[in-house]
Amino acid sequence: LRIAILGATGRMGKSLLRAVVEAEDLELVGAGASRSSAALGKDAGEHAGLGALGVPIGGDPAMVMAGAEVAIDFSLPTATPANLAACRALRRPLVLGTTGVIGLEAELGVAAKELPILVAPNTSLAVALLARFVKEAAAGLQGYDVEILEAHHRGKIDAPSGTALVLARIAALARGLDAEGAVRADRTTRRGPREPGSIGIQSLRAGSIVGEHSVLFAGEHERLELVHRAFDRMAFARGALVAARWLAGRAPGLYVMDDVLGKSRR
Ligand SMILES: NC(=O)c1ccc[n+]([C@@H]2O[C@H](COP(=O)([O-])OP(=O)(O)OC[C@H]3O[C@@H](n4cnc5c(N)ncnc54)[C@H](OP(=O)(O)O)[C@@H]3O)[C@@H](O)[C@H]2O)c1
Question: In the annotation, is 152 catalytic?
Fold first, then answer.
């Protein structure tokens, strides 16, 4: 399967390149960065410390994904509109791993009528399973307060994490609550006890933490905690490749990691 990686010079991009090189069934045919990237024109593999791969880093997403069967985007939200436009123009399936993408729902919906798009703010397979557990716990433990704690490295630019927001949404929907209205990412501006039905999210940013999420279900006399800790970005990279294989050749539509988990034979 021929793969193009957008955001190939970043932390995730380097792990994705390594994962593609390690996979015998995948071939890297494109590697993208911003138009002002210091790495433009360099060999993507050499830039990632993997040795030459014969794929130069490019700044034009359409050129980067021209020879690919699937595009994988782990760049920044500012890059996503142009990457999505290129996918539409070329009809390339897209695994969108970039988080913090705001206001693009309509465009994604329109594009998904023409090509398969997987929106995956967390491509770890274990997190996809965690989401299922959260749904079950939220529905089964009615009356227990749901709170989420997430921790990431100091370089992460969006907060709360896309994963924390997805988990909060899943918990809210499992209880028939308005997902957007339930989230409390900041309790400092309001005095008063915990609002019933609210779902708090606390964000830590420190050091090199790759990504951790704890979902608490706290009752009167007990609490359940569902915890995921990623200690290497390869967890997200390998999951993204499982998703890319799953997405290739699929019918147009908007997919999530839960779809991949249900049908993956990994
Ligand atoms: N889905 C998941 O499981 C998962 C896991 C971890 C992270 N993420 C998300 O993945 C994204 C990347 O994370 P990261 O830690 O790898 O970030 P990063 O190290 O800052 O890398 C960002 C990448 O995007 C490129 N880029 C920046 N601006 C661009 C633009 N305007 N057009 C095209 N490319 C651009 C950068 O290239 P140059 O700087 O070289 O130009 C670089 O390759 C973030 O949104 C992060 O939250 C998702």
Answer: yes
Nearest CA to ligand 1 atom 35: 34
What is the pLDDT at residue 8?
98
Give the residue, out of 36, 65, 76, 99, with the most ligand 1 atoms within 8 A of its beta carbon, to mutate for a pocket test: 76
Task: Tell me, in angstroms, the distance from the centre of ligand 1 to residue 225's CA.
Answer: 30
- The candidate with the shortest Cα–Cα distance to 146, out of 204, 222, 200, is 200
Ligand 1 geometric centre to CA of 79 (Å): 9
Is 47 labeled as catalytic in the residue annotation?
no
Per DSSP, the residues of 115-180 read SEEEE-S---HHHHHHHHHHHHHHHHTTTSEEEEEEEE-TT--SSS-HHHHHHHHHHHHHTT--HH
Dist CA 131 CA 228 (whole Å): 10
- Predicted TM-score of the model (pTM): 0.93
Distance 12 CA to ligand 1 centre (A): 7
Residue 161, ligand 1, Cβ within 6 A: no
Q: What is the pLDDT of residues 210-246, one digit of tens each?
A: 999 999 999 999 999 999 999 999 999 999 999 999 9
3-state secondary structure of 189: coil
Say if residues 260 and 38 touch (Cβ distance below 8 Å): no
Q: How many residues does the chain have?
A: 266
Q: Of 42, 47, 135, 152, which one is the catalytic site residue? A: 152
The tens digit of pLDDT for each residue in 39-52 reads 999 999 999 999 99
Q: Is 247 helix (H, G, I), strand (E, B) or coil?
A: helix
